[in-house]
Design a protein that fits this description.
The chain is an alpha/beta fold. It has 18 helices and 22 strands. The chain has a seven-stranded mixed β-sheet with strand order 14-15-16-13-12-18-19, with helices on both faces. The protein has a six-stranded mixed β-sheet with strand order 9-8-7-10-11-21, sandwiched between helices. The termini are far apart. One of its GO terms (molecular function) is aldehyde dehydrogenase (NAD+) activity. One of its GO terms (biological process) is carboxylic acid metabolic process.
Length: 548
């Protein structure tokens, strides 16, 4: 089940999107400013989103919050300061629970526990097979508690429950089984030398890893980071995003139930400037892994360099091009481009946020993209059939609305959407801009929301140049019937992943990471193991060797 869920993310999400209600309830947006300075709706903008679910009373989540403290040395404990912070329900803005707020002192306690577990504890000295068995038991427990974990994720994050329960939680189990399989297959080498020497190349655990995960995919990012670190025999301190601390605390408890020794995994909830900075700059942390914005990634890199020059991997922002050629099946292209952008409320680092459409099919594409957006079901993410829940919090909500205003003011055509939905929570209408130019902010900066920018191009060379004219290089999509065109684009686009006639295919074995300012290193697949291993050469003289 988990393998199927991991390997067919696109097809399952697309099927769910197509099966969603096509009903459309009227919604009237607030006035927007036209490029000429006047106010009102832009010509031809008809708002008819399916919003019934957003207007109803929120559904009571089918789960209790049991873990809100820091996890240090195998125990849930209060923060040293005694402080807590609220984690909010994005559907309403109301408090779900108060969570222990870790700071530098708590990070130090967690690092001390992780260091002791690495230097003195059983984890790195345990056989690789036994480490593998613990990860396999952990995967079993994730599957057993699938629905509770998914409910926590939806409650704290706002993503559709069906997405969490049917796709993301099974993917976490699949990832853990994948890394369990690697644990006893991390091999060294014996290499020949130019002389009588026996040379071994050892791959050793790096030590104590610091890991900082984001709020858009809390469970999956936990798995992407914790899985390879544990498979390689490391211990770790993980800082959750302050917006979404609950699911990581829950599954960390399951990890200990699976037999993980104390101190191997420690979880600190807190804020970036305090807990995150303390972890990135800690002198006893050997490696730091961060997923988040490019600006914050630069700070993490600087803190790591200024402290003990610890190893760093970064998975950062993107402004991914989705290139649709003139030979495309327009209906199929519209559906895939819609998914590439609006999936997870648009809160996806690799979202296809620059939709490049060939001029021959541009007008048809825009009209059909508008129709698809108007059919998108936005509402309570616990309700069956909902495609889009709320944005994560008021900060992100207001940031997206500012970008929408920027698009209108810069002269792009607001095709549909452009405003909030309802009066409670952080819901935003699926929004589309056409006539977008490369120099506009909505075409250059990462919006991280349900805003599709559709750009027109004439030929292959032009779109390659424009697609690459970005400081980011995380991912790209290509939609064409021509193998030659696909081959040209996949080699020309300066990005870490190119999806051809598909998008957001995230298998456990496929490496993920970016070029340019989209990051350093790769997550998932065999390449992720390199992030958590040191390479050591051992050279020994040989006397009277029978062979060299």
């Amino acid at each position: 089940m988990a393998r199927r869920a991991a390997s067919s993310l696109v097809s399952r999400c697309l099927l769910a999107s197509r099966a969603a209600s096509a009903g459309a309830a009227p919604a009237v947006p607030s006035a927007l400013r036209r490029p000429d300075g006047t106010r009102g709706l832009l010509p031809g903008v008809l708002q008819r989103f399916s919003t019934a679910a957003a207007a109803e009373e929120p559904i009571s989540p089918p789960v209790q919050v049991n873990y809100t403290k820091l996890l240090i040395n195998g125990n849930f404990v209060d923060s040293a300061s005694g402080k807590t912070f609220p984690t909010l329900d994005p559907r309403t803005g109301e408090v779900i629970a108060h969570v222990a707020e870790g700071d530098a002192e708590d990070v130090n306690r967690a690092v001390t526990a992780a260091r002791k577990a690495f230097d003195e504890g059983p984890w790195p000295k345990m056989t690789a097979y036994e480490r593998s068995r613990i990860l396999l038991r952990f995967a079993d427990l994730i599957e057993k508690h699938n629905d509770e974990i998914a409910a926590l994720e939806t409650w704290d994050n706002g993503k559709p429950y069906e997405q969490a329960a049917q796709i993301e939680v099974p993917m976490v189990a699949r990832l853990m089984r994948y890394y369990a399989g690697w644990a006893d297959k991390i091999h060294g080498l014996v290499v020949p030398a130019d002389g009588p020497h026996h040379v071994q190349v050892l791959h050793e655990p790096i030590g104590v890893a610091g890991q900082i995960i984001p709020w858009n995919f809390p469970l999956l990012m936990f798995a992407w980071k914790v899985g390879p670190a544990l498979a390689c025999g490391n211990t770790l301190v993980l800082k959750t995003a302050e917006q979404t601390p609950l699911s990581a605390l829950y599954i960390s408890k399951l990890l200990h139930e699976a037999g993980l020794p104390e101190g191997v995994v420690n979880v600190v909830s807190g804020f970036g400037p305090t807990a995150g900075a303390a972890l990135a700059s800690h002198m006893d942390v050997d490696k730091i892994a961060f997923t988040g914005s490019t600006d914050t990634g630069k700070i993490v890199l600087e803190l790591a360099a200024r402290s003990n020059l610890k190893s760093v991997t970064l998975e950062l922002g993107g402004k991914s091009p989705f290139v649709i050629m003139d030979d495309a099946d327009v209906d199929h292209a519209v559906e895939l481009a819609h998914f590439a952008l609006f999936f997870n409320q648009g809160q996806c680092c690799c979202a296809g946020s620059r939709t490049f459409v060939h001029e021959r099919i541009y007008d048809e594409f825009v009209e059909k993209a508008k129709a698809r957006a108007l059919k998108r079901v936005v509402g309570d993410p616990f309700r069956k059939g909902v495609e889009q829940g709320p944005q994560i919090d008021d900060e992100q909500f207001n940031k997206i609305l500012r970008y929408i205003r920027s698009g209108v003011n810069s002269g792009a055509t607001l095709v549909t959407g452009g405003d909030r939905l309802g009066g409670k929570g952080f819901y935003i209408q699926p929004t589309i801009f056409s006539d977008v130019q490369d120099g506009m902010k909505i075409a250059q900066e990462e919006i991280f929301g349900p805003v599709q920018s559709i750009l027109k191009f004439k030929d292959l060379n032009e779109v390659i140049k424009r697609a690459n004219a970005s400081p980011y290089g995380l991912a790209a999509g290509v939609f064409t019937k021509s193998l030659d065109t696909a081959n040209t684009l996949t080699r020309a686009l300066r990005v870490g992943t190119v999806w051809v006639n598909c998008f957001d295919v995230f298998d456990a074995a496929i490496p993920f990471g970016g070029y340019k300012q989209s990051g350093i290193g790769r997550e998932k697949g065999i390449d992720s193991l390199k992030n958590y291993l040191q390479v050591k050469a051992v050279v020994t003289p040989i006397k009277n060797a029978a062979w060299l």
